[in-house]
Write a structure and sequence with these properties.
By secondary structure, this protein is α+β, with helices and mostly antiparallel strands. The protein has helices at 62-69, 79-88, 113-125, 131-148, 152-164, 184-194, 210-220, 271-283, 288-296, 327-343, 348-364, 369-381, 387-390, 392-397, 401-411; strands at 23-26, 32-37, 44-50, 92-97, 102-108, 201-206, 242-247, 253-261, 303-309, 314-323, 418-423.
């Protein structure tokens, strides 16, 4: 076949990606397992996920401290013995906590699954929360908190988080120094109520053999079922708009956060089009906020906007740090860029560039067994069907300039925003 190398190949948009679906089965005790056998590499990731996070805790920091303390000792092993055993097998265990979810993750070689999954199950099922280790953790975490709160960016994030939700809502957070004085009984109660293995969902990705699945069932499938008592978190879509300045004497930089709650879920018809709008405004390096406030004005090294979908709220956020002398001008330019999206239609070339960036980002985030599992896991907990990911790129391509302008008019209004500045104006 002859090719005319003077003619570029035709470039077509990618409209559909069929992400592999998991093999689903249940352990002997009914725990659901989603398995992604997608590589020949002798590597595996096992995630034990609980649908309970910081929003469910009865005492501030209860969820965080409970998760961190699990590896500090069990009925059968000390914290050092656990760490040495996991290291010896070239493995790694980590925990992550969000408003809604607590996850314990094991990375290990497939041939060591039996040895390491037993330890993971043990630290979740039978921790003892030793007092000495708890006191050490409390001191370390308090010190980190006090140091970080001296940073304008952290103080701004903290204040913005306080203003997003009413005090009565489980998502409300206002961590203070005295909250670090947690006690062992609080952790025991949180563990008993919210980290019950029989209430977990398991995601396995990597080289997943039948023996791996049998091993997981032999270890976790024998855990006795216990009733779980979790209150359902009511969705919240509205926020009281306000402007807050927390002055810092001698501050060189001001930290800025502007944002709001959005009245739609990840399953909403507005979600993906708003992601396009967000990317255009501040979601990638060539965004309008970067072009204006970094490249043109030179006020900052970086500014960005983002969209965060919790299970019971959706957050839009703009964040940056600027020289204190540029604070007011930066706020004006942010407002200007949001207003411009409401009054001017975005050009086809700029919109096409954004769509190409989002397409590439989606494809990169869908590559490999761990990423595939992450995509499915997010859809699973948000109650989305398989078509959400398959049709994601098609829905990006369907977004028009008119859609972008209409969404900006609907959602990007100063009167609906929380604005927090830590520094000086």
């Amino acid at each position: 076949m002859n090719f005319d190398r003077a003619v570029s190949p035709k470039v077509e948009p990618i409209n559909r990606v069929d992400i592999p679906l998991p093999e689903k089965f249940e352990l002997t005790n009914g725990i659901p397992v989603f398995s992604f056998d997608l590589t020949e590499l002798d590597l595996i990731r096992i995630e034990i996920v609980f649908k309970s996070g910081s929003a469910h805790e009865h005492s501030t920091l209860g969820a965080d401290f409970t998760a961190k303390m699990l590896r500090e000792g069990t009925v059968a092993k000390s914290g050092k013995e656990i760490a040495d055993y996991i290291d010896y097998h070239g493995s790694f265990i980590e925990q992550t906590i969000s408003k809604d979810i607590t996850t314990f993750t094991l990375f290990t070689l497939t041939k060591f699954v039996h040895q390491t999954i037993e330890v993971l199950a043990e630290i979740i099922d039978s921790p003892i929360f030793p007092e000495n280790e708890l006191e050490t953790l409390k001191k370390n975490e308090l010190q980190k908190f006090q140091v970080n709160m001296q940073k304008n960016s952290v103080a701004c994030k903290h204040e913005f988080g306080k203003l997003l939700y009413p005090k009565s809502h489980p998502y409300f957070s206002n961590v203070l120094a005295n909250d670090f004085d947690v006690n062992r009984e609080q952790l025991i109660q949180h563990h008993k109520q919210f980290l019950n293995l029989s209430d977990a969902t398991i995601f396995v990705a990597g080289k997943v053999t039948k023996d791996v699945l049998k091993t997981i069932d032999s270890v976790i499938g024998k855990v006795e079922n216990r009733n779980s008592n979790k209150s359902k978190i009511k969705r919240i879509d509205e926020v009281v708009a306000t402007k807050v300045l927390l002055p810092k004497n001698g501050a060189v930089q001001s930290a800025i956060r502007i944002g709001r709650l959005l009245p739609f879920k990840k399953s909403s018809n507005d979600f993906i089009p708003f992601q396009v709008l967000n990317t255009l405004l501040g979601g990638y390096f060539s965004s309008r906020l970067m072009a204006n406030i970094r490249e043109d004005k030179g006020f900052t090294y970086g500014i960005g906007s983002g969209l965060l979908a919790n299970l019971s709220s959706t957050i839009f956020l703009i964040a940056t740090e600027v020289n204190v002398n540029s604070t007011n001008e930066t706020l004006k330019e942010i407002s200007f860029e949001m207003d411009r999206l409401k009054t001017e239609k975005v050009s086809n070339s700029e919109l096409s560039r954004v769509k190409k960036f989002m397409t590439g980002s989606f494809l990169r985030s869908s590559d490999g067994p761990f990423n595939v599992s992450d995509k499915y896991k997010s859809s699973y907990f948000h109650g989305l069907d398989n078509e959400f990911n398959s049709l994601y790129l098609s829905k990006i391509q369907d977004v028009s300039s008119e859609n972008v302008r209409d969404l900006a008019i609907k959602y990007l209004n100063d009167k609906d925003m929380i604005e927090v500045v830590v520094g000086n104006r």
